[in-house]
Specification:
alpha+beta, HIT family, subunit A, 26% helix
């Protein structure tokens, strides 16, 4: 791996990678992990991240980005089990809406709702629903 930025003092995604914070993981390999968003926009809203900390795409070498994109592609195929359509999003920087400054892609299954990016409050994912979605997305 290419050396890069040190983990932020309080990076929740680094804590998930290190096993210090819980997550509903649906995929993991040596370089990446995918887990359910705790405040999903839609059912199955998944985050795909590199294990090594970096805030932006430009913090990673091409081979690291290739690993992230392979995982994203795997998760897109799995998301099609939930819904045929989905959005993939990346927010880079605070002005662009990035809240956690560790590179991550949002994979958001679409179920025909008019706008899942609504500004109203999002409900926290419950254990029962998380278990159901993890089962659907984890199986090969």
């Amino acid at each position: 791996m290419t050396p890069g930025p040190a983990p932020a003092e309080k990076c929740i995604f680094c804590d998930i990678v290190a096993g210090r914070a819980p997550a509903y993981k649906v995929y993991e390999d040596e370089q990446t992990v995918a887990f359910l968003d705790l405040f999903p926009l839609t059912r199955g809203h998944t985050l795909v991240i590199p294990k090594r900390h970096g805030a932006r795409l430009t913090d990673y070498a091409p081979e690291e980005l290739a690993a992230v994109l392979r995982t994203l592609e795997t998760m897109c195929r799995r998301a099609e089990r939930l819904a045929p359509d989905y959005n993939v999003g990346l927010n880079a920087g605070a002005t662009a809406g990035q809240i956690v400054f560790h590179l991550h892609f949002h994979l958001i299954p679409r179920y025909g709702e008019s706008n899942p990016f609504r500004s109203t409050g999002r409900k926290r994912l419950g254990d029962d629903e998380a278990g159901n979605v993890v089962a659907e997305l984890s199986a090969r």
